[in-house]
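Box 3.1 A note on notation
Throughout this textbook, protein chains are presented in two layers. The first layer is the amino acid sequence; the second is a token string describing backbone geometry. Keep the layers aligned when reading.
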Amino acid sequence: MPSNVAHVYQIGVREPFLYDDKKITRIGISDIYESKWQTVFAELKMPVYLTFDVDFFDPLLAPGTANLFPEGGDYENTLKFLAQVLIHKRVLGVDIVEANPALDIRNKTTLLVNSLLMHIISLLEL
């Protein structure tokens, strides 16, 4: 991890991933809806870079991704959580990755990504 990165929060990662870095905190999908995380993110005073993997969502919502892991996030609770994370933060950048239109079904994932991006933009303080 680059030395200028203070900390990384991995939220909702469901696939096996081994790491041994004190700068990384993993937060499970079931954990993101607990109020204890609200205070953690509220206390963060540093700028934020948000990268959002589409495979975070349950495959029923986002079938257009190469990594289909069951029991993913839902849209409504994800938007509430993002609002809590991004409120009053200086956002350096945002990207949304892991969408694959070739695997999408009736543009469900594409529409979800567009809606997610517009919601994230609406949360940013300019």
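The chain has a mean pLDDT of 86. The chain has one domain: 8-123.
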